Amino acid sequence: MVLMKPPVLRVELPERLYSGGEKLSGSVLLEAAQPLSVAGLRVTVSGRARVEHRGGAGGGRRRREEKEYLRREEALRLEEQLTTGTH
Q1: Confidence band, pLDDT 50/70/90 cuts, at residue 74
Q2: Which residues are bridge partners to 8 per DSSP?
Q3: Regarding predicted confidence, which is higher, 72 or 76?
Q4: CA distance 17 to 23
Q5: Tens digit of pLDDT for each residue in 23-57?
Q6: Is 9 within a domain?
Q7: Cross-referenced SUPFAM superfamilies, in alphabetical order (predicted)?
């Protein structure tokens, strides 16, 4: 039995955190150890804000809140045969 290495999908962004209104740009890389047929790729981006506040006597009271501000999906249709390597 020959085990095939699964393809690796990596998203590369120049920053780890972004503020509201900033443009997001980067790369989506697909690394294949053997030729691979790809019909499409779906990229989902979501933005969240998380806040945690500790207060009160001795910092015993905590309050947390989280809100989703953005959720966007893009579907890319490729319909091609990819060769071994990074694309």
Answers
A1: confident
A2: 31
A3: 72
A4: 12
A5: 878 888 888 888 877 777 888 888 888 888 887 66
A6: no
A7: E set domains
Give residue 29's identity as a one-letter amino acid code.
L
Counted residue by residue, the chain has a size of 87
User: Mean pLDDT for the chain?
Assistant: 78
Neighbours of 30 (CB within 10 A): 16
Q: How many domains in the chain?
A: 1
User: Are 27 and 79 a contacting pair, CB within 8 Å?
Assistant: no
Q: Which two tokens stand for residue 26?
A: 């980067």
Average pLDDT over every residue of 63-73: 84
Compute the distance between CA of residue 66 and CA of residue 13 in angstroms, rounded to an integer.
Answer: 23
Residue at token pair 């890319």: 76
Structural domain includes residue 47:
yes
Q: Evaluate whether residue 77 is within a structural domain.
A: yes
Domain residue limits at 74 = 40-52+61-87
In a domain, 86, yes or no: yes
Phi, psi of 57 (to 5 degrees): -65, 120
